[in-house]
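Students often ask what a 'structure token' actually looks like in practice. Rather than answer in the abstract, let us consider Alpha-L-arabinofuranosidase B arabinose-binding domain-containing protein, a protein of 462 residues. Its sequence is given first.
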Amino acid sequence: MTAHPAAPSRRTLLRALAALPASAVLLGETPGLLGTALAAAPPNGSATRYTIVPFLNSNDGTVDVYQSDDATDFRLLRSSAYTPPANRIRDASVIRHTDGFYYVTYTTHTWQDPSTTIGFARSSDRVNWTFLYDYTVPVAGLSRAWAPEWFVDSDGSVSIIVSCSTVNDEWIFTPYLLRATNSALTAWSSPVALSGIGANHIDTFIVKTGSTYHAFPKNETTKYIEYATASNLTGPYTIRRTGDWAGWGSYREGPALVRLDNGGWRIFFDGYGDGNYYYSDSYDTFATWSAPAALPAISGTARHFTVVKETVTGGPSLARNVTRSFRSANYSTRYWQQQSSLLNLPVVSASSTTAEKQAATFTVVAGLADGSGCSFRDAAGNYLRHWDFRARFDPNDGTSTFARDATFILRAGTASGSVRFESYNYPGRYLRHYAYQLRVERSDGTDLFRQDSSFVPVTAWA
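Now compare that with the structural description of the same chain:
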């Protein structure tokens, strides 16, 4: 539960404004939060789909629905998709349940008011929602129940983790677990407090890997997101990292994690002090993280969300072990062409020389790092890879670094028949032309970037 970022001083004084309570998710083939999505590139003809249902920075009475195929560039699917019949909707957490419906649970009041209920709604298509009920959280002396978050465990059980405060200290929150006692998600067990994280920790988001639960709570005293582990969902948790251990800075809240197609983990969090929403990636089981980057397009608009990841049909397709040429989607006379080992985008036509046509012809093969991705080989057997984010061709040296540099994940392009090529080891960066040179650049969420990074596979020039 967060207040408007334009008034951080009020939030500091009341401490309520940072209260984004506990959330949790188990990744894998569970039919819950992530559907059937795996940590691998989607197969030919399929696509990854990430869905978020944030409330608005300007309005906590409704939620929008956004989707993305890369967990970076989120695009609006439906504005004001759900407005509850009464009260507010904040901190909506979304799940796809085993019955095929999407469910959201949410905070029902604004941060200033006592709030003893959490709300529920469901949808068959993510854009049309039906109110189900408000549920009174049975915690003795309850003052506020904020930010309920779905959790699906490895045994298939469905729970909600909600942060609660009591009337004797309304701004000190403790995460509680409510377990669903029926498949309709209408009956809940008695609340059980999570142990070991300690007082004045909020926004606890948990992911499970193997038999270990990894928790990311926010320390409301220091304003840093911390890290803890436990062997049971309810704890006891041991806090392993404190302070600015991950390099995200302070005045960060609302952490939420999701597994990327290349196996890495991405954390999203709200930089409520500066108005941005950030992401950061880890590839060593949460030990180190990339420098935080602001999400394009939705920073300053979306507030407190969790992510549903699914693999869906209808994605882009590109045949392997065939030769193709690649035409720019927005400069229809220009094609990929190797020039002195670098990949550029010159004009190629029927009057081009045989050598020029050959340099604009490539063999598409299965990705060196992930067979569901793709790699590109020239006539000499060299592979397209990025080096200092410049696209170039080099011999395969057999290393895992080279394999990742030379693997790209197919994403849908902007024009009919076009595709985009996302870097396998730098998610959110795409092969994009600039000044007719091909580079691997970070998406800025604009239509121009999407057009510049879209290419049409066509019959090979040679």
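One point worth highlighting: Residues 8-14 form the longest helix (7 residues). Ask yourself how you might have guessed this from the sequence alone, and why that guess would often be unreliable.
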